[in-house]
Design a protein that fits this description.
The chain is α+β, with helices and mostly antiparallel strands and 520 residues long. It has 4 domains: 103 residues; 96 residues; 144 residues, no CATH class; 107 residues, no CATH class. The protein contains 3 helices and 27 strands. Strands 9, 10, 15, 16, 17, 18, 19, 22, 24 and 25 form a 10-stranded mixed sheet that branches. β24 and β25 form a beta hairpin. α1 runs antiparallel to α2. The chain is flat, with a radius of gyration of 39 Å. The N and C termini lie far apart (88 Å).
Length: 520
């Protein structure tokens, strides 16, 4: 069996970046000899997962892969250079350390001198106090001595400040020299991997080899940039890629996938769930316990987590591809990779939910015509005045409507006031809770501002889940009545505000319950 004497370069040609790892593909053309031979390919990342290593040859060549494995070698730190032939960088570090030592000694001497001057000044002031007590007045001598003490204190104090400033600059320069020497002269220990490939070729000739494996320390997340220009929205979809696999990806075909290969495929275990029935007591028959519960209205999706969130793909694995070859160095930093650009018509409205926030926000809605799903991720928002902040985009399927919040409007303000009254009515003494909500909307316009501004106000009404509690909207008492109330109890008004104008919207509703209801 022949063995290749030198390693054969095995470049990375394609990468599929998953949520927390990457699938690396390599390809090259080998010039094989007839017979069994062992080839050494690489170097490759030492983090490659051995059990995922797979090699295949082109089908039109009579060759067979007998064995493929990753062999790792450890290169220890190289010895330090001898003292006789030290580099200029080491001489500079030595000179800086000597200067730092001298300056440290000088600083100590100056501290001692200033301490002596301080004690001398204290003795002089005590002498002046005692002389003044005995009636001795030597003003010229006292003034001369005090001036000399102050002059020496200022002189040595200035020298001390100069020394400390030089020491601070010296520490910075010494640290830079030491880091440069560490990078240039002290070779770090390195773990290098090579692929050993054993082949059996019936005839000599060129053959194409494809090799793939998984590697950790690589991940990606979606990111967007939205530019709003009138009624047109330009949405740029990018991928932020991090990798510290030990080898750079240079001009590779990059594919981004949301598949989670690390998740187990076994179905969950089903446990026994017993349901039991029991008769209600007399007290439980007489009363109905209710409670007010806050429910967040939103779409299904993963719960928010601190730190770097996972990829929200709507429960289905999504695949995105970079349109051009990409280079991602193995420095562990974030690298932005452009994926697609969508320019589409958009509609915007100014909306406010005063119970949640008093700010009026510009909401932009559009249809996803990019040809691929828009995964959940951060969005850099740009309007006519420039960068306006950062928002978030929820998962949006192809062709589905999307929504972006472009920040609050400073010229619109809402003040919310709520009042509540409780009464009993009827023969059966039903409890009636009347709640009145007033929303004061104002527009602070600049001189020369023209045109009305449409603002959408939303306020919620409780929704009852039991027949013993009734919720009724009093449209006759509302001013004005809501334009619409959906099944989730959200009342909506479309309010037009002229420049400098203001409006007040009132919402009145009643919550009534029978006498057997407790907890309201």
């Amino acid at each position: 069996m022949s063995t290749a004497p030198k390693p054969i370069a095995l470049p990375v040609t394609a990468v599929t970046c998953l949520e927390d790892r990457a699938h690396v593909e390599r390809a090259l053309v080998l010039d094989l000899e007839a017979g069994v031979q062992r080839l050494r390919l690489g170097p490759v990342s030492a983090l490659a997962v051995d059990r995922t290593l797979h090699a295949e040859l082109t089908a039109d060549h009579a060759a067979t892969v007998l064995d493929v494995r990753i062999v790792r070698s450890w290169t220890p730190r190289g010895p330090l250079p001898a003292a006789a032939d030290e580099s200029a960088l080491r001489h500079r570090v030595h000179a800086l350390e000597e200067e730092r030592l001298d300056l440290g000694r000088r600083r100590d001497r100056l501290h001692t001198r200033l301490d002596l001057i301080g004690r001398l000044a204290a003795d002089l002031l005590r002498d002046i106090g005692e002389g003044a007590g005995f009636g001795e007045t030597e003003r010229p001598r006292w003034a001369r001595e005090l001036d000399r003490v102050d002059e020496e204190r200022d002189t040595y104090g200035e020298q001390l400040r100069t020394v400390e400033a030089r020491l601070a600059a010296l520490a910075v320069e010494l640290g830079q020299c030491q880091r440069a020497m560490h990078l240039s002269e002290e070779a770090p220990a390195e773990l290098v991997g090579h692929v050993e490939l054993t082949l059996d070729a019936a005839v000599a000739g060129p053959v194409e080899l494809r090799l793939s494996h998984l590697v950790p320390c690589a991940l990606w997340r979606p990111a967007y940039r939205a530019v709003l220009d009138g009624d047109a929205l330009t949405l740029e979809t990018d991928a932020i890629v991090w990798q510290r696999t030990g080898e750079d990806w240079s001009d590779v075909r990059l594919t981004l996938s949301t598949a989670r290969s690390a998740l187990a495929t076994d179905p969950p275990r089903l446990g026994e769930d017993r349901l039991t029935l029991k008769d209600r007591s007399a007290a439980e028959r007489r009363t109905v316990d209710v409670e007010l519960r806050e429910e967040e209205i939103g779409a299904l999706g993963p719960a928010s987590v601190l730190g770097l969130p996972g990829v929200d793909d709507g429960g289905e694995a999504r695949v995105l591809s970079a349109p051009a070859p990409v280079s991602v160095p193995a420095d562990g930093r974030a690298h932005r990779v452009p994926l697609s650009v969508l320019t589409t018509a958009a509609t915007s409205e100014y909306a406010c939910s005063p119970e949640v926030s008093p700010l009026v926000t510009q909401i932009v809605r559009f249809d996803n015509r990019s040809g691929h799903a828009l995964l959940a991720g951060p969005v850099d928002l740009v309007r006519g005045s420039g960068f306006s902040g950062r928002g978030t985009l929820d998962f949006t399927a192809p062709g589905a409507p999307g929504e972006l919040a472009f920040g609050s409007c400073d010229d619109l303000g809402v003040v919310r006031r709520a009042e509540e009254s409780r009464d009993s009515a009827g023969i059966v003494q039903r409890t009636v809770v009347t709640r009145t909500v007033r929303l004061h909307l104002s527009r602070f316009s600049a001189p020369g501002d023209r045109g009305d501004r449409a603002v959408v106000l939303r306020e919620r009404i409780p929704v009852s889940e039991v027949s013993a509690v009734e919720v009724r909207l009093r449209k006759d008492a509302c001013s004005p009545a809501p334009d619409a109330v959906d099944a989730e109890g959200i009342a909506r008004w479309d309010v037009l505000l002229p420049p400098g104008g203001n409006r007040t919207v009132s919402l009145v509703y009643e919550v009534s319950a029978s006498a057997k209801v407790a907890g309201l």
